[in-house]
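Weekly puzzle thread! Below is a chain. First person to post its structure in token form gets bragging rights.
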Amino acid sequence: MTEERRAEIAVIGGTGVYDPEIIEDAREVKVYTPYGAPSDLITLGTYGGRRVAFIPRHGRGHQIPPHRINSRANIWALKELGVQRIVASSAVGSLREDYAPGDFVITDQFIDRTRKRADTFYEGGKLCHISAADPICPQLHDFFADFARRLGLRVHPTGTYVCIEGPRFSTRAESRLFRMWGADIIGMTLYPECVLAREAEICYVSVAMVTDYDVWAERPVSTQEIIETMTRNAANFKKLIMEAIPEIPRERTCRCGEALRDATL
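Winning reply:
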């Protein structure tokens, strides 16, 4: 594979999180996978001396609903391009009073409440029981928690993310139940993205921004509120992701790169 078709770090998220205009030698590539087409073309280039890849999770124009995202194709495509680290941005609702709209959360755990998503590369023949005890790369997690503090952003270094199927929002009863379970934030995109990255032996970190209080707070969630919060905080979100990329440690000190060693039969 030529250097032009390789990347070390990938960003998954909306186009508002990164700025293609500041990427050197940017080019769009199509990657074919055994699982069909990824969400969109992948933008490759150089930023801050690092080879990077960007893919909009919901496709250009935000057209793919969360339950229809082809996460297997997305992760497979990034692996094919040589990606070793994934920075995944997301918008989430808060299940806690102290996790306020505009705050950032560096997720460290999840609860899966999805129902219909393909969530493994191992469908038969060779079995894989990947460890998800600590689903987020510890090295990237600690780096982003510290980096957000250095930027002076309001950040929560831990957060249990309950991932629902979508595209509907939760009922009040569901939202209250998730709070009883100890979940901190709620969204629709973390799973199965993070476990597929683990199966691909790629480091993965989830950088989430709180856009609203979920319906438990007696304030019905609206798409308009989410968009308004994202718009107000877009500069901070972009700053956190883009300024971090050149400073991500080049050496991986975690065990994500050998996740399959004790997982396959």
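Puzzle host: Confirmed. Bonus trivia for everyone else. The longest helix spans residues 223-244.
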